[in-house]
Amino acid sequence: MRFELTIGLMLLLAATSCDRRVEPFVPGEKPQQPDLAKIFPAGAERADEPIAELPPAPGRRAAPTLATGGAPIEGTVELAPEVSSAVPRGAVLFLIARGATPGPPLAVKRIPDPQFPLRFSIGPDDRMIQAIPFVGPIQITARVDADGNATTRDPGDLLGGSDSPHAPGDRGVAVLIDQVL
User: Fold this and answer.
1) CA-to-CA distance for 130 and 144, rounded, in angstroms?
2) Positive or negative CA dihedral for 25, 29, 30, 34?
3) Largest CA distance in the chain
4) Which pLDDT score is estimated for 8?
5) What is the pLDDT of residue 167?
6) Buried b (16+ CB within 10 A) or exposed e, 86-102
7) What's the rounded Cα separation, in Å, for the pair 13 and 178?
8) Which of 84, 108, 153, 175 could cross-link with 79 by S-S, CB 3.0 to 4.6 Å?
9) What does the pLDDT look like over 23-68, one tens digit per residue?
10) Would you place residue 18 in the very low, low, confident or very high pLDDT band (cuts 50, 70, 90)?
11) Whole-angstrom Cα distance, residue 175 to residue 78?
């Protein structure tokens, strides 16, 4: 008796609790975009208007914003005479901006088939992680990679960098590629 009662209750629950409002199949019905007015409230289409931010609750920190940081760093990448003949055909130049803290680079620029001397600009638009601001001091390095894969460092790849760290907005930065791996 107890078993039958349990099964009966389970069937009753299954029959009354599943209300997905599934409409019947209609042969020949054409697919169409859903009516978003059923999902979004009136006025939601006005995404242009700025959304006012609320202050953080007492005892909580404000959420981090996507800070862009400073202006791009601009300069020139040049090859030292002793490595100028070592640039392979089809190589890729990786221009890398690293901050003072360890971890991933702040910004990276990939330049296929570079022609030297090469004028560059690297800044907030080239960031690897958008939440990390482009702020100084920033060390600029460059690597000419034969296989075009940023994760490999093969013998024959060329590298170099600027003499000292730079601040966002610096211009006239000289990057010299003078080493062979």
Assistant:
1) 25
2) negative
3) 95
4) 83
5) 92
6) bbeeebbbbbbbbbeee
7) 75
8) 84
9) 777 788 787 777 777 666 666 555 555 555 556 666 666 555 455 6
10) low
11) 6
Give percent of the chain with pLDDT exceeding 70. 76
**Residues forming beta bridges with residue 120, ordered by sequence position:** 75
Q: Which residues pair with 139 in a beta bridge?
A: 98
Q: In degrees to the nearest 10, what's the CA dihedral of 21, 24, 29, 34?
A: 0
User: What is the side-by-side strand order in the sheet with 158-161?
Assistant: 107-112, 92-98, 139-145, 158-161, 173-180, 73-79, 118-122
Q: Which residues contact 86 (CB under 8 A, 6 or more apart)?
A: 156, 158, 180
Assigned token pair, 35 = 């009516």
Strands (E), the chain: 73-79, 92-98, 107-112, 118-122, 139-145, 158-161, 173-180
Q: With 90 as the cut, is the pLDDT of residue 148 above it?
A: no
Angle (CA) 8 14 19, round 5°: 150
Q: Which amino acid is at 61?
A: R
> How many CA within 13 A on the CB side of residue 40?
10
Position of tokens 């909580």?
A: 60
